[in-house]
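User: I'm putting together notes for a lab meeting next week and I want to include a structural view of one of the chains we've been expressing. I don't have a solved structure, so I'd like a prediction I can at least talk through. The sequence is below, exactly as it appears in our construct file.
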Amino acid sequence: MTLDKLPIGHVAKVAAITGDPRLQTSLREIGFAEMDEVEVLGFGPLGRSPISVRLNRMTVALRPLEAACIHLETAAGKSVA
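Assistant: Thanks for the context. Below is the predicted structure for the 81-residue chain, given as structure tokens.
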């Protein structure tokens, strides 16, 4: 599952960051890294954009395209379905 599909209030761990190398770099500069916990706080009213995400101790707003590059896993180490 990718971050753009995670339901509000659910927590998961970042398994991988994929996509365009420049976008990967931008997401890593924001603070996204493998094994970080993320939680979706909410979705914007137009096309579920932007997506509000809690990452570590900060809140980040992402476009759905950006969130789709962040792959997640459950706490047990399995991909979220």
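A couple of points you could mention at the meeting. The first strand starts at residue 11 and ends at 17. The CA atoms of residues 39 and 54 lie 5 Å apart.

User: Perfect, that's what I needed.
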